[in-house]
Amino acid sequence: MSIERKSSDGRKLRAGMVFVLVVAGTALIGWGGLAAWQAVTQNNGSTATTLGVHMQNAAQVTGGHLVTCTDQTSPAACGAVFAASGIVPGWGPNQVGTVTITNTGTEASNFQLSLASAGVTAADPSWSGADTTLCADLQLTIADSETPAVTLYHGALALMPAQAISDNGGNATWVSGATNTFDFSLGLPAGSPKTDEDSVCTAVFQWSQAGG
Fold first, then answer.
1. Calpha distance 3→88 (Å, rounded)
2. Are residues 7 and 75 in the same domain?
3. Which residue, among 143, 127, 121, 107, has the nearest Cα to 202 in the 3D structure?
4. Which DSSP string do the residues of 147-160 spell out, in sequence order?
């Protein structure tokens, strides 16, 4: 009787050991085979940031108020460059307005000034369809605030080509915060034709910026 109990106890012991080994093996497999320990590191907050091109335009008609706009509020918020009146042949040249351009972006940039449009309309009922020459006869001069000042253009208003412009240090590439002020003068030569009478020349000047 005692021998049979010992045999039964041995079978129970062996069965218990098999159960323990199965459980231990399952745990090892669940944690990546035989690896008993794990470690993890994580890099957070990696970012990639771009630069931007932006400008401020501050225009002031001679004798008027300063009007400031940005590339985000243009064109509606930008002011006129000039509002000259009482012009007759032999008038001027007179300074009629200024524009200060500032690179408010974070990217070094190149700037350009161009004439977007120039058209003639009637100043009063005496105007005729032939009176369309005023923009071509008005003489426009643009100079900047470098030392000494640089004349960017002098000639017929209607014929002004696009102009690459420098900052007030003469640099073609404007770093962030760079600025320059541009003075506009107008004149109407003596002997200008009668087709300039009773007319309004309306000009649109455009300042453009490209990342360097």
1. 137
2. no
3. 121
4. SS--EEEEEEGGGP
Residues 9 and 60 in one domain: no
Verify that 101 and 180 share a domain, yes or no: yes
In this structure, are 31 and 114 located in the same domain? no
Q: Which residues span the domain enclosing 126?
A: 55-211
Residue 77 CA to residue 66 CA, distance in Å, equals: 12
Instruction: Please give the structure tokens belonging to residue 197.
Output: 């009478």
Per-residue pLDDT of the chain (212 residues; tens, 9 = 90+): 444 454 555 555 444 544 444 444 444 445 455 668 999 999 999 999 989 999 999 999 999 999 999 999 999 999 999 999 999 999 999 999 999 999 999 999 999 999 999 999 988 877 777 788 999 999 999 999 999 999 999 999 999 999 999 999 999 999 999 999 999 999 999 999 999 999 999 999 999 999 97
Q: Is residue 48, in this structure, part of any structural domain at all? A: no
Residue 49 lies in a domain: no
